[in-house]
Amino acid sequence: MEKPSNFPSPFYRWRPHPWHGLEVGPEPPIRVHAYIEMTPFDYIKYEVHKVTGYLYVDRPQRTSALPPTLYGLIPRTYCDARVKSLSENAKRGDGDPLDICVVSERPIDRSEILLNAVVVGVIQLLDHEEADDKIVAVLENDLIYGHIRDIDELPKVLVERMQHYFKTYKMIPGEEPAIKLLGTSGVKKAKKIVEAAMEDYNDAFGRM
Prior knowledge:
The chain is α+β, with helices and mostly antiparallel strands.
């Protein structure tokens, strides 16, 4: 059967898996795709289900904090040995896709969307001794933040909010915090981590 002329190329007859079926981005490691799992309006922790690719409820968030930015994953990335080697005192990668926070001036209240993001830095964390890096990016063509190319150019208070959120979003009263903030780095370190996560993905799942 001849394909209609207005079909895009490639055309997906079935929905691609957000982690495995989408491209890393237009120009990785700087311009990447971000698949958004959570918005700054979500009191529920949503994640992509690794088997089906659908968004599912991981848990209600225990604290009153809301994500300060859009939050999701970079497709075809994986945090394993190479990512671990870039994280001080980490014993392993967390075995998940690489997380990404995307700063946007206009409120975006929908998840399960795909967008282009420009990488500007990284917040490095240890979660139970696992490397759990959060890439920081700006929405491409954003009218307020779109020109930013390094995390130092973002408002300081916004970076502080991201750090505070990730330090506290898994807190349980009466228990020792499981998450340790290692520090924040600029675009140079962030690029290395994105590249490492792409190579970790290729090692684990093969090149596409």
